[in-house]
Structures are given as structure tokens and as C-alpha cells.
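User: Just a sanity check before I run the rest of the batch. Below are the C-alpha cells for the first item. I only need the designed sequence back.
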């Protein structure tokens, strides 16, 4: 079967289209899935480029959407023909976080979904949202579930809340759609006026170009009458100080990305004075994903897929992500 593998050390120039053995029939508790779609995340980019080293010959891509082809003994949740989507932490079924690494994450610690077929435990998947194609379904695994857990599962988002989003990548645009579905008001920053206009069309209310307004925290605080309730913080140390300026006293900063680096100064005095809850998080559990799917079925929104690449052009897809050209998600068809 057709697959992409990453020879160690990884780099986009070394992504290899190869032929792997078919995984065969599912055993007890397993399902066989024909994988038809995936989407790119910065975690996948880190593995593909070798910045997050993985095993030699690793099959990349954490997100996988497809169709059940066979079920093993004891599987009752799925049937042949079901549309399913993978879980980022296949062993984290419910409850509080149990993992602090990626040792069991597809595309990193174990083989991912840049291949035509997989046989995995049934508990490594959920049903896909109704009416989603495989690429759209794959978009919920990492970016979508991260935004859902941050705002809803952990943040308790409610109608009328004010939310600040940074940039227009996959997590931020998912968060915009979720916030609007839940009746929240959204401010969003970007360096691109064209992307800001697209965000406005999706319901963002207050938009700022951070190149033109580098001290955007105070502007957001003024717009939100004292500070926003939630910040989905994807930048990390380079943007955190402005996010603290923007959030209300007792607000919530959801730290889910480090696009500006992995270390730096944090204005701890201001963080304490504002009594802000700063929470780091990585994606979510299978139960979180099942709740998210139910919400999507009720809410009727679909992810924004900027462009789809065939599996054979995965390196070109990553180069588009590297250049920051995308709005929302970049898809891969398999």
C-alpha cells in the first residue's frame, strides 16, 4: 500500500513515497480503516523536518479520516462503512490528562495516517461528524479538538463571552467558528489585512493588524470593556505579554502554541495582579472528541480547508504551511 515515510534525520526533501505491507485484517477490539484524508499541524511539521526527531522510517500525520472496512471481534461501536476520525492521544479515553509526551501520538511516537490503510484499536477513533468528508473530519483531531477543549471543555465558554484569537491558522480559525457557534464575541489579530477580512466574514467582530499595532493588548482591552474572557494563545513568549494586557481580571489564557519560541520572559507580576488563569494544554481525550463531534452535528459548522494536496505532494503542503500562506487548515487527500 502507498505511504509516506520519514528517513532519519527528517527533512522535507527526504519525505519518501513508498510501498508498505498491507496491515491485514483487524483482531479482537480492532478496526481496519481505509484512510482518505489528513490535515497538517505544526506538530507534524516538526516531525517531518526533524525538529522533533522520531523513529527512522516513521509514517507521519496525526490526523486521519476514513471509512471502516472491517471490524474485529467485540467491536460494537463501529460498523463497516462508518466514517471515522482518529484520536491524537489514542490511549487517553477520558478523565484528566494522563500523558505529557507524544510517545503514543500517531505520526510521532507511533506511525501516523500518511498511508492508505491502518488497523488500530477501535478506541483510537470516534465517529466522524455528519456530512463531513475525510479531510474535513481529519481537521478535528488536533486543531479542532484543541480549540474545543480550550474554550469549552476547560474554559466553560458561554454566550456573550469575549474571545481573543491570534492569527488565522487551524486552531485560531476553529476557535473562531466554535466561539461564534456558542454565541461569543471574537477579536482576532493577524499581519495580513486580507486574512483579517476573511476572518470578518466568519464572524470576527474586532480585527487588528499586529504589524501596524504592535501594542495590541491595550486596544483589545479597550474594545472588550476591561479585557477579554478568553485568549487562545498560539504565539508563546513573543505574544504572551500582550495577551496578559488584553485579558480581563480573572480571565483565562489558554496556552496551546509556541510559534514565537519555546522560552522567554513572562510578566509574572502582572499575571498575578490580574489573577489570570494561564493553562497549558495539548489537544484532548477521546471523550472530549466525542463531545465535540456531537456539538458539530448540532451546530452545523464545517472547518475551513484552504487547499488540499495529494499524498504524493505532502512536502509541498508542508512548504505552504512553512510560508504561513494558509488560512485555516491545509488538507491531504489519500
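Assistant: Here's the designed sequence for the first item:
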Amino acid at each position: 500500500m502507498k505511504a509516506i515515510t520519514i528517513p532519519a534525520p527528517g527533512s522535507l526533501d527526504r519525505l519518501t513515497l513508498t510501498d508498505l505491507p498491507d496491515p491485514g485484517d483487524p483482531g479482537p477490539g480492532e478496526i481496519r480503516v481505509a484512510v482518505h484524508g489528513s490535515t497538517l499541524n505544526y506538530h507534524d511539521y516538526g516531525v517531518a523536518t526533524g525538529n522533533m526527531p522520531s523513529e527512522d522510517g516513521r509514517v507521519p500525520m496525526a490526523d486521519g479520516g476514513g471509512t471502516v472496512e472491517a471490524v474485529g471481534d467485540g467491536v460494537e461501536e463501529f460498523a463497516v462503512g462508518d466514517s471515522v476520525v482518529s484520536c491524537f492521544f489514542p490511549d487517553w479515553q477520558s478523565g484528566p490528562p494522563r500523558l505529557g509526551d507524544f510517545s503514543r501520538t500517531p505520526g510521532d511516537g507511533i506511525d501516523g495516517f500518511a498511508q492508505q490503510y491502518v488497523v488500530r484499536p477501535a478506541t483510537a477513533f470516534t465517529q466522524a461528524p455528519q456530512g463531513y468528508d475525510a479531510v474535513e473530519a481529519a481537521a478535528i483531531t488536533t486543531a479542532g479538538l484543541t480549540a474545543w477543549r480550550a474554550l469549552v471543555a476547560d474554559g466553560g465558554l458561554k454566550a456573550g463571552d469575549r474571545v481573543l484569537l491570534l492569527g488565522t491558522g487551524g486552531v485560531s480559525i476553529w476557535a473562531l467558528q466554535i466561539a461564534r457557534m456558542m454565541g461569543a464575541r471574537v477579536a482576532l489579530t493577524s499581519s495580513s489585512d486580507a486574512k483579517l477580512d476573511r476572518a470578518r466574514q466568519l464572524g470576527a467582530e474586532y480585527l487588528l493588524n499586529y504589524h501596524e499595532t504592535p501594542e495590541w493588548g491595550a486596544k483589545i482591552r479597550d474594545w472588550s470593556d476591561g479585557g477579554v474572557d478568553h485568549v487562545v494563545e498560539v504565539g508563546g513568549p513573543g505574544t504572551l505579554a500582550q495577551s496578559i494586557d488584553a485579558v480581563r481580571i480573572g480571565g483565562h489564557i489558554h496556552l496551546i502554541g509556541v510559534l514565537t519560541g519555546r522560552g522567554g520572559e513572562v510578566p509574572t507580576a502582572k499575571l498575578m495582579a490580574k489573577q489570570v488563569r494561564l493553562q497549558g494544554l495539548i489537544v484532548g481525550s477521546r471523550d472530549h472528541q466525542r463531545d465535540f463531534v456531537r456539538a458539530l452535528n448540532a451546530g452545523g459548522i464545517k472547518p475551513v480547508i484552504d487547499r488540499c494536496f495529494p499524498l504524493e505532494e505532502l512536502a509541498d503542503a508542508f512548504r505552504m504551511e512553512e510560508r504561513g500562506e494558509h488560512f485555516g487548515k491545509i488538507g491531504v487527500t489519500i
